Amino acid sequence: MAEYLPRIVDSELDLLLEAFGATLIVGPKWCGKTTTGEQKAKSILRMQDPDRRDGYLATAGTKPSLLLKGEKPRLIDEWQVAPVLWDAVRTAVDQRQEEGLFILTGSTSVDNSKIMHSGTGRISRMKMYPLSLFESQESNGEVSLKALFSDPNLDIDGITTNLSIEELIFATCRGGWPAALRRKSNAAKLMIAKDYLSNICESDISTVDGVQRNPAWTEMILRSYARNVSTLAKRTNIYKDVAANADSMTSATMEAYLNALEKLFVIEDIEAWCPAIHSASTIRSGKKRGFIDPSIPVAAMGLTPDYLETDLKTFGFLFECLCIRDLKVYSQTFGGRLSYYHDRYGLEADAVLHLSDGRFALIEFKLGSREIEEGAKHLKQIAALIRKYNEKETQFPLREPDLLMVITGGEMAYTREDGVKVIPIGTLRD
């Protein structure tokens, strides 16, 4: 058995099992949900076991409570194969009045039409992402995101990473899939994301909700979405791009495909942050196009590490996707939520990281050192706008940013004279 790579959500799962009767782990296929659940489980029910699936389904259809028998916590893997298990788990939690009874895993969002109860108060929900660079042991983790928020004067000067730009490009193309890390050759490691994409197009897009969908159309949609990753491209523009090669596709059809891809945790857009520092008409409120892992748009566009080494402009968009993934992982245990800021004057923050206690950071992603100055300038300008707004708005002032940082693909961390933290992604952790 392969060695388990500890995940940042391990501690969150411990807490949820202590607080609730059942915990649902959701996230994309192959990200490690089942393996993480297995570390805590004392008994396991694998609903997709080909030797037992039919028997399990028959039992679920007659007396689902029988499938819940076993030492706690009992892991129910891919529970959505038999949606009745959701209500059975909820009922069991109500009857037994215990914590940590069940762990449920699934690769699609909950289909509320097939369950009777929401599970609120009984079944907690925990989202998993593919491995971050720290979890894959490629970031040395010498700069803690939590520590940065706790101590604005944290000394990071001189902390370095050995992660080269070539290695960063490869990690982006390979993705955070645990299976990829277990492969010996680089060629084999890169195949995992390609196979993931193929599975999404050929089968998962249709099985997610039982609606038969065209694999070629799915591939075209993902390719267009990938070309617009980390941008504010409108879905109408993506539709025009796709429709040029799929004459019979309607905009409503494309929306249905995109909704299915969201349910599969393949695409995950970033919402806009719209503070009152400008009039509402000047702030862009559309979503920024995103994927759960940067290897998916790489695979969709048919790119390779060798190609990206010669096209750093394209890699810059993929680098942002990678950084977004890692920030979501690192901030999850302390209530992180990501958005972006962009106005029509060209002022932007690639990401705004909000914590559950109200603290937030303005963040820019800059691949090279030559771009850092521009990124820091934008962050300082947004902070100045907030201060200017607060001079007039005394009754409901906006909180000023607790942290300004530029995340780079460079080698050395340091604090600029203006207070902006410059942090290589290869040094960051939770």
What does the model show?
Helix content is 40%, strand content 14%. The chain has 2 domains: 10-127, P-loop containing nucleotide triphosphate hydrolases (Rossmann fold), CATH 3.40.50.300; 143-429, no CATH class. α6 (165-174) crosses α12, α8 (186-207) crosses α9 and α9 (215-227) crosses α12 (295-301). The strands form 3 sheets. It has a 7-stranded mixed β-sheet. Strands 2-3-4-1-5 form a 5-stranded parallel β-sheet, sandwiched between helices. A two-stranded parallel sheet has the order 6-14. The radius of gyration is 22 Å and the shape is globular. With 430 residues, it is an alpha/beta fold.
Brief write-up:
This protein has 430 residues and is α/β, with parallel strands linked by helices. The chain contains 15 helices and 14 strands.
Strand content: 5-15%
Shape: globular
The averaged pLDDT comes out at 93
Give the terminus-to-terminus CA distance: 27 Å
Please work out how many helical segments DSSP would assign: 15
Q: Count up the domains.
A: 2
- Largest sheet entry: 7 strands, mixed
Q: What ranges have pLDDT less than 50 throughout 5 or more consecutive residues? A: none
What does the secondary structure layout of this molecule look like, with pairings?
Layout: H1 10-19, E1 22-26, H2 33-40, E2 43-46, H3 53-62, E3 74-77, H4 84-96, E4 102-106, E5 123-127, E6 143-144, H5 145-150, H6 165-174, H7 178-182, H8 186-207, H9 215-227, H10 235-243, H11 251-263, E7 271-272, H12 295-301, H13 305-309, H14 312-331, E8 337-342, E9 348-354, E10 360-366, H15 372-392, E11 403-408, E12 414-415, E13 421-424, E14 428-429
Helix pairs in contact: 6-12, 8-9, 8-12, 9-10, 9-12
